Amino acid sequence: MSIRRSRREFLLDTTMAGVGLALGSAALEACASTNTLKDPALPAPTSGPLKKVRIGYVGVGGMGTSHVNNLLKIEGAEIVAVCDIKEDHARRSQEMCVKAGKPRPEAYTRGEEDFKRLCQRDDLDLVYNATPWEWHVPVCLEAMNMGKHSATEVPAATSVADCWKLVETSEKTGRYCIMMENCNYDRIEMMILNMVTQGLFGEILRAECGYLHDLRGVKHHMEGEGLWRRAHSMKRNGDLYPTHGLGPVAQCLGINRGNNFESLVALGTKTRGLHLYAVERFGPDSPQAKETFKLSDVVITLLHTAHGEVVVLKHDTSSPRPYSRDILVQGTRGIVQKYPEPVVYIEEKGKNDEWEPADVYLKRYDHPIWKELEEKSKGAGHGGMDFIEDYRLVHALLKGIQPDMDVYDAAMLSAVTELSETSIDGGGKPVAFPDFTRGMWKTPRPLEVMKTV
Question: Cα(447)–Cα(451) distance, rounded to whole angstroms?
């Protein structure tokens, strides 16, 4: 029996049980059998080809500026307007456009909600935002309701209710809502996806992934990103940043395209790292050392799919460690892992019981998109994958084809945050995923990024 719930079922359960409830599997099945309200399945948004993609960019701090720089190099993209609460950020992006020989975009800097004025323009096709997390949903909703496609940095939302708002607004308006997961375009991750698609690992059994990044210094920085990241760590305990690791793995598993996540279980360790860092860096009597945090130093989430695969997802941003996304995919014929060095083992192709360097396979299974865009992406952020994700978005809108990710991907991946919080609050009880597609996931469909293979 399925334990999946529609939005109305999810809201009914939340109303009856309270926001912090984590249900066991038997209770979840009972809820699914007694709740009969269903949402109608609606078609995904469509868009005809555009002669150029006219863009309004909201949030042009560090990451936003990087995207603006990429977009200025992509034929067919035009920055029409920029928005930021800091005038110097908006002015910097304006000057970048002028220096690149492009028209000077109009700036919107009248406070936190000035993006609404930007969205009212009738000369925009896309509103793209790289704001703090809590503004991702308001900007996307405003853009779609004003008839524009929307794109946002990760995560798309921080609550299940907001995930539903994005899905329903996208369906109602016929506008795209795209989460810009740059790690989907990492070269090794795309090679792994290519190998999975061609069946080299056999039938996939499990995967591991995560976001393991020492952010103690960032979270204790008293300006910009440090302020809002630290605030989330003070108030919430769960996987706050699931999509960097889970995005590429979800593609390998065919999530929303014939397969789906059905449930998860999450547990968190004690909370120590951010406090110890403050004591050591600022002193035991400092204001920083007196701050308290809720986020576990390490959060481990187990996800179960409709087809029986298991994913181990890790979140570790409060402890000393080298950066990793712990990418691993294992099937009935072999296994691949990316960190600390990319290695592959495929039965009967390599030496028995010995890893092979991934470079041996990269020569043959390098993704065609990387072959096409390697030169153009040189010098761009995160080894070039940021440029490729921006290029692919503009390319899709110019061609009038489905983007590589859709609103259902944005919702499914982002929902992990609240669902993991709920599981931890309930002592590690299983929590069901809502079915954002209302059953449409059961129909297999190819990934757009694989149609060139």
Answer: 7
Q: Which residues contact 154 (CB under 8 A, 6 or more apart)?
A: 179, 180, 181, 241, 243, 244, 247, 414
Q: Tens digit of pLDDT for each residue in 290-340?
A: 999 999 999 999 999 999 999 999 999 999 999 999 999 999 999 999 999
Nearest Cα residue to 286 out of 272, 296, 276: 276
Residue 208: closest CA among 308, 328, 330, 343: 328
Q: What are phi and psi of 329, to 5 degrees?
A: -130, 130
Task: For 226-245, write each residue's pLDDT tens digit.
Answer: 889 999 999 999 999 999 99
Dihedral, CA of residue 242, residue 244, residue 245 and residue 249, to nearest 10: 110
The answer for 428, left when phi > 0, alpha when psi is -120 to 50, beta otherwise, is: left
CB 90 within 8 A of CB 60: yes
Q: Determine the length of the chain.
A: 453
* Parallel, antiparallel or unpaired: strands 328-331 and 204-212: antiparallel
Q: How many CB atoms lie within 10 A of CB 135?
A: 19
DSSP one-letter string for 353-383: T--EETHHHHHHH--HHHHHHHHHHTTSGGG
Are 198 and 173 a contacting pair, CB within 8 Å?
Answer: no
Please name the helix (run of DSSP H) or strand (run of DSSP E) that holds residue 128, with its range, or none: strand 126-129
Matching residue, tokens 């309270």: 18
Within the chain, what is the greatest distance between any pair of CA atoms? Answer: 64
Dist CA 236 CA 258 (whole Å): 33
If you search the block for the tokens 């970048």, which residue do you land on?
Answer: 96
Strands 328-331 and 334-337: antiparallel
Is the confidence at residue 32, as pLDDT, over 80? no
Residue 39 has which token pair? 């949402």
* Whole-structure pTM value: 0.91
**Cα angle: 10, vertex 16, 18; to 5 degrees:** 85
| CA separation for the pair 401, 413 (Å, rounded) | 22
C-beta of residue 47 within 8 angstroms of C-beta of residue 176:
yes
- Burial class of residue 75 in the structure, from the number of CB atoms within 10 Å of its CB (0-12 exposed, 13-18 middle, 19+ buried): exposed
The CA–CA distances, whole Å, from 440 to 93, 144, 178, 328 equal 40, 22, 18, 28
Residue listed under structure tokens 């109608």 = 40
Preceding amide of 155 cis, omega within 30? yes
